[in-house]
């Protein structure tokens, strides 16, 4: 008799995404790569009368004066019984209420919603099948819009769009019931595994930024890993005290409707990426309209003569006086690409925490909470093939 031996091989697999990524067929092992990637957003058509805030990845903490990014790594079971809180979610409005109503007294709620991406299915299982009759969920769109529902969690729920799901547990669930309860993202229930969790909170002096260059379309993104942060941008505030060169057509561009101002800064990237809260970056520097751009010398910006109270026939000195007067009450807030990226170290304790992150056997979830603007996630993990 010939006995055949099954050989299982292990390779490094990579996965990327944002907010949450799922690692499949894992073996328990340290991540070979764990990287967070910066991102920045801004509203459309910024203008002096329509300023648009530049937002980047990181939650501002007013108390600590830091931008925070929270990382959580779990196994396949998403039910953390230690995080249950008493309360009720109004079935009509979706609002959290501390006091129970007459229909659903003594309800328990998971303190954090579960992110369910489009096409994914949420399933719940528990040994005591009677308890399943008292499990419900509430769903919300990513913008916070409540979707009225009251479906049993014992049924599988497949999302047709990215959603947040809050699980509720009504009346009479014993401690033993909680120990066998499993919530997972899967097509069908699988064998129970206890909840596991690893967490890291990263506090930053500046958010993680990522801006697309308008001239070549490259997305220049800052990155963070256990070795530190690669910074590609810096804040530039242009005020009445900023040294600016005022021109009168010597750059070969028309200034019939606007005045060109140049802020020279050798640390900035020629034709690099830039966003300005008050002016739009356009890929046409010679256009005679209000805008901002990165040039060989630094930052060029145009302000309209009408806004500055200037006529069509003015000298550079007259332009200077008008621009300084304007900037006194209307500074420009920019984020501009550096010519040479810099490296910013992380505290040793945070480095050690990031280096200690690992996958679990089977399925692993990685959650990254960077606030309103989602940081990218890039992970390499050991994969059973």
Specify the biggest β-sheet.
7 strands, antiparallel
Rounded mean pLDDT is 88
Low-confidence stretches: none
Beta-strand portion reads 35-45%
Spatial order of strands in the largest sheet: 1-33-4-23-24-30-27
Indicate how many domains the architecture comprises.
Answer: 3
The N- and C-terminal alpha carbons lie at a distance of 28 Å
- How many β-strand runs? 33
Our count of helices gives 4
Helix content: under 10%
Envelope shape: elongated
Structural summary, described in words:
- The chain is mainly beta and 385 residues long.
- It has helices at residues 175-179, 305-308, 316-329, 348-356, and strands at residues 10-18, 20-26, 29-30, 33-37, 40-41, 55-56, 59-61, 66-74, 84-86, 88-89, 96-97, 108-110, 114-116, 121-125, 135-141, 146-147, 157-158, 163-169, 182-185, 197-204, 210-212, 219-221, 223-225, 228-238, 245-246, 258-264, 274-276, 291-294, 298-304, 332-344, 358-359, 362-369, 376-384.
- The chain has 4 helices and 33 strands.
- It has a 7-stranded antiparallel β-sheet with strand order 1-33-4-23-24-30-27. Strands 9, 12, 13, 15, 16 and 18 form a 6-stranded antiparallel β-sheet that branches. Strands 2, 7, 8, 20 and 32 form a 5-stranded antiparallel β-sheet that branches.
- The two termini are 28 Å apart.
- The relative contact order is 0.26.
């Amino acid at each position: 008799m010939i006995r055949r031996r099954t050989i299982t091989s292990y390779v490094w697999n990579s996965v990327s995404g944002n907010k949450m990524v799922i690692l499949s067929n894992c073996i328990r092992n340290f991540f070979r790569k764990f990287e967070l990637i910066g991102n920045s957003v801004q509203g459309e058509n910024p203008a002096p009368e329509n300023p648009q805030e530049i937002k980047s990845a990181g939650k501002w903490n007013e108390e600590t004066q830091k931008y925070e990014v929270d990382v959580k790594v779990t196994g396949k079971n998403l039910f953390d019984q230690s995080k249950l809180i008493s309360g009720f979610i109004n079935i009509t409005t979706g609002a959290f209420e501390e006091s129970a109503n007459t229909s659903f007294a003594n309800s328990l709620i998971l303190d954090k919603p579960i992110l369910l991406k489009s096409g994914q299915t949420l399933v719940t299982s528990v040994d005591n099948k009677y308890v399943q009759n008292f499990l419900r969920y509430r769903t919300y769109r990513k913008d916070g819009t409540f979707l009225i529902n009251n479906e049993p969690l014992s049924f599988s729920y497949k999302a047709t769009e990215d959603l947040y799901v809050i699980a509720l547990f009504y009346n009479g669930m014993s401690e033993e019931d909680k120990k066998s309860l499993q919530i997972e993202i899967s097509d069908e229930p699988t064998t129970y595994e206890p909840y596991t969790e690893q967490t890291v909170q990263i506090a930053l002096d500046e958010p993680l930024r990522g801006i697309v260059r308008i001239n070549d379309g490259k997305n220049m993104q800052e990155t963070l890993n256990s070795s530190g942060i690669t910074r590609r941008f810096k804040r530039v505030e242009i005020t009445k005290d900023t040294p600016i060169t005022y021109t009168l057509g010597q750059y070969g561009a028309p200034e019939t409707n606007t005045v060109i101002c140049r802020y020279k800064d050798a640390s900035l990237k020629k034709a690099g990426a830039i966003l300005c809260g008050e002016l739009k970056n356009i890929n046409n520097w010679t256009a005679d309209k209000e805008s901002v751009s990165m040039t060989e010398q630094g930052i060029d910006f145009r302000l309209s003569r009408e806004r500055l109270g200037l006529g069509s026939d003015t000298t550079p000195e007259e332009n200077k006086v008008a621009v300084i007067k304007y900037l006194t009450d209307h500074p420009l807030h920019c984020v501009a690409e550096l010519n040479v990226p810099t490296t910013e170290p992380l505290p040793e304790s945070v480095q050690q925490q990031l280096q200690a992150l690992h996958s679990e056997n089977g399925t692993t979830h990685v959650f990254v909470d960077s606030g309103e603007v989602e940081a990218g996630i890039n992970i390499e993990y050991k994969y059973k093939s």
